[in-house]
């Protein structure tokens, strides 16, 4: 996975990592509300890096969690999904709307290979001060530049330049 080469997602070692993530995320999603809101300890321990003053609203889902790097003051709203088969870098001050998805894995196009669990993972990089709208989808290998805005429901298949706003499916600059 880390080499951006084809691998089988059915590998027992990967299942062990996903199980660890499921347990931490379950604990996060079931914790009682805190005042003021804080990042749960199980989720903070699962992530590769988590800067100060981050908040991930429940419910949340990640496939591994251990590839997620959060800068300072990152806010991830409820019902977000991060399929972090590769590194996911989220910069300082970024806000992610409810129901947004960040996806690193791409399944094989050949049906026989897909049935064997073959996929490839590409990193997603999200710069500082980015705003990703509700229900947006960021696809494998995409980079969102500093201050970019992704409109609600957009499907981002290509890099977005610094300060650029994109909308639609596939996402295009406004």
From TrEMBL:
Q: A Gene Ontology molecular-function term? A: O-acyltransferase activity
Its keywords, alphabetically, are: Acyltransferase, Repeat, Transferase
Q: Where is the Maltose/galactoside acetyltransferase domain?
A: 1-52
Gene Ontology CC entries for this record: cytosol
| Matching Gene3D superfamilies | Hexapeptide repeat proteins (2.160.10.10)
| CDD domains the record matches | LbH_MAT_GAT
- In its keyword annotation, does this UniProt entry include Disulfide bond? no
> PANTHER family attached here?
ACETYLTRANSFERASE C18B11.09C-RELATED, SIALIC ACID SYNTHASE-RELATED
Q: Which family does it belong to?
A: Belongs to the transferase hexapeptide repeat family.
Q: What is this protein called?
A: Maltose acetyltransferase
Upper classification of the organism: Bacteria, Pseudomonadati, Pseudomonadota, Alphaproteobacteria, Rhodobacterales
